[in-house]
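Fold this sequence, please.
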Amino acid sequence: MLPSISLVIPAYNEAALLPRLLASVAVARERFCTGPEGVEVIVADNCSTDDTAAIAVAAGCRVARAEVRRIAAARNAGAAIARGRLLCFVDADSQIHPDTFNVIASHMYRADVIGGATGVTPERWSVGIAVSYAVLAPIAAATRIDTGVVFCRRDDFETIGGYDETMKFAEDVRFHFDMRSLGRERGARLVRASNAKAVFSTRKFDRFGEWHYLPLMLKAPWYLLNRRAGDRLAQRYWYQPGR
């Protein structure tokens, strides 16, 4: 029996936090309406030097190897071996809601839905995190471009060419724009499955400060327009060891 859903987890040196995510995935698989065999879990190992791949194998996950050290490449590598009709993507430092797969399936049975995301809630709160969240939440609600567990049909993923591997960051935003454009051609829309929000790690706030995210977002257009500055940011914020 082929799975109906493939969950892709891009991971680089995530041995510390991957088990926490996989534990939450196991709960959601058990609660899936067709049983746990309806969901396959793929860890897209992005050149890890720790036990990420071994942990994935021990947990019964399939492992895809992404040789290009880039988040988009890891997501695409996982999707390339997926067998499910629906594709889902979630970061390795997250935790998912117990009803994630049921909620996603209920949305994706509808012809007027092209895809979407669950949205997120932080693993801890502070004033800085709360303000950052309050600023970004209305934007996500208005645009339906969100994060958390991102989902779509595999055929549509292939139609738009997956994630743009030339981008070191904001590839997820580009992906949503591409999916939204495809949906408009078909009279379908992006949705926010906010009744199954994922929990996101606040480790970036731990490392860069409680208030770092707002100025980062204000400078985002500059980083996107200035390739050199954007590459420096990506290396420091997403790609260096210990990030």
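The chain is about 45% helix and 15% strand. Residues 5-239 form a domain with the Spore Coat Polysaccharide Biosynthesis Protein SpsA; Chain A fold (CATH 3.90.550.10).
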